[in-house]
Every structure is written in structure tokens, then in C-alpha cells.
Amino acid sequence: MKDLDGKAIIVTGAGSGIGRATCVTLAGHGARLVLAGRRKTPLDETAARVRAAGGKAEVRGADVARSSDVKGVVDFTVEKYGTVDGLFNNAGIEGPIAHLVDYPEDAFEEVFAVNVRGVFLGMKHVLPVMLAKGRGSIVNTGSLGSERGLPGSSAYVAAKHAVAGLTRTTAVEVGNKGVRVNCVIPGMIDTRMLRDIATTIVGDAEAGLAAFGKVAPLGRLAQPEEVAAVVVFLLSDTASFVHGVTWPVDGGVLAGVGTGG
Predict the structure, then answer these.
(1) In the chain, where the domains are located
(2) CA dihedral 213, 217, 218, 224 (to 10 degrees)
(3) In what helix (H) or strand (E) does residue 37 lie, and over which residues does it extend?
(4) What pLDDT is stored for residue 98 in this prediction?
(5) Predicted local confidence at residue 1, as pLDDT
């Protein structure tokens, strides 16, 4: 995907997991990156990996739930690289595991602040730059929770449904203005988030991951790099007619029920 060479791309939640893997993959395609997130040390570690891969990366601390922070990331990117060509709206949190009747109200609000408001603000502040030049690509991170109910995750599931809705609505609004908006739907991915969930639900991370891997008809977990490959495709002009979709990278979970064989 040589069309990404020199493109200026913002990645939120770039400090680990899918965000980090996407940054390293983008670096291999020549993109110039701004890595945004709340914790500087993980972002610096990602930036080091990007530079080791021959890429360019700048780190910008930001709380994606704060409008001024998100605007600051966009302004910084324009100042540094002259424009913004792509946005990977990836920052997200899972929240606690609890049935709705027991779900803490403050936790519900925090999950929505990061997972929904953060996606909304990312698009709100980057779109004026993209619309002014008549081109750009945005990829939001959804979840299996964007398409299905997951017991114990009412806030997360509601928030990820909202991400899918924001993606579709924005795609309808801006598609005829040269900007594409899509959503990637990761399935069971071997990340810190899934390991924490496995520990909470099963009591042991490795046993939980093994069980989660059996959910997919492919019979295994995915690695973050497998999601990153799809994100990079969606950000690129190779996906020039892919617009307004929620793209599963789930090993077949949403297609049906695996047999375990």
C-alpha cells in the first residue's frame, strides 16, 4: 500500500495492543504518525518501535474524552506534518464486569466518555481538516459488542453499539465530500484487555484465553497484528470504495457458532 507513504495519521490508544501493532504496521508502509493517549511511557515505547521500523512518530499526551485535548492532537499534527490524512480512533476501555443491576453508575459514565465521546470528538475535530482538502480516511474501533450482547458488559456493549452508529451516520454525512469512515470489529484478540477480562471471568488468564479462543469457528485467538492489517487497508486508498462498514476481524464469530472441531 504505497499510497500511505508520507501520509499523516493519528492513532489514539497507541500505547498497546491493536493500537501499537497498527502503528508499527503503518510505519512499514511509510506513514508519518502522531501517537495519542493518556500514558506517556507506553506511547514512548510504541514510538521507539515505529522508529526502529524506519517510521516517523511523534507522541502527544491526550485524554480523548476532553475536547481541548483532542483538538490539540489534531492541531499538533497539522503543525508538524501540514495535514491529517488518516485517523485511527482506537482508544477504549472495557469497564468492570458486572450485571446491569449491579453496574456502577460512575463506571458507566467513564466507559461512555472514552469509548463514545472519544470517537465523536476524534471525528469532530479531524473532519474539518479532511473536508477542507476533500479527502481522508477514518477508522473507528468497534467490538463484537457492537453487534452482540455480552453479559456483564452493559456499558461497553452499549458504547460499542454507539461507535457503529456514529460510524454509519458520519459515513452518510461525508461520503460525497471525499472522506471515508469505517469501523473495524475485532473479535477475541490476545491483548491486555482480553487477558484482564479472562482473569476476571475465569480466574486464570491462560485458561480464560484458551476458552475464548474456542468461541471462533477458526478455533483460536487472533494477534493484534491481524487486526492492524485490516485497519491499515481501510486507511489506505486501496480501500477506496469501502465506506460506512463495520468490518469483522473475528475468526468467524459473527458468522455463526463454531463446532469446536
Answers:
(1) 2-187+224-249, 190-221
(2) -50
(3) strand 32-37
(4) 94
(5) 60
pTM for this entry: 0.93
Whether the CB-CB separation of 114 and 129 falls below 8 Å is answered with no
Cβ atoms < 10 Å from Cβ of 69: 18
Which three-class secondary structure state does DSSP give residue 93?
coil
Nearest Cα neighbor of 144 from 33, 21, 6, 250 is 250
| Residue in 88, 156, 212, 233 annotated catalytic | 156
Alpha carbons within 13 A on the beta-carbon side of 99: 1
The torsion region of residue 216 among left (phi > 0), alpha (psi -120 to 50) and beta comes to beta
Per-residue pLDDT, 259: 52
Q: What cell was used for 178?
A: 471525499
For domain 2-187+224-249, the CATH superfamily is NAD(P)-binding Rossmann-like Domain (3.40.50.720)
Identify whether 81 is a catalytic site residue. Answer: no
The whole-angstrom separation of Cα 129 and Cα 151 is 39
Does residue 157 or residue 197 have the better pLDDT? 157
- Find where cell 484458551 sits: 210
Confidence band (pLDDT; 50, 70, 90) for 261? very low
Burial of 218 (0-12, 13-18, 19+ CB in 10 A): middle
User: How far is Cα 165 from Cα 57, in angstroms, rounded to an integer?
Assistant: 31
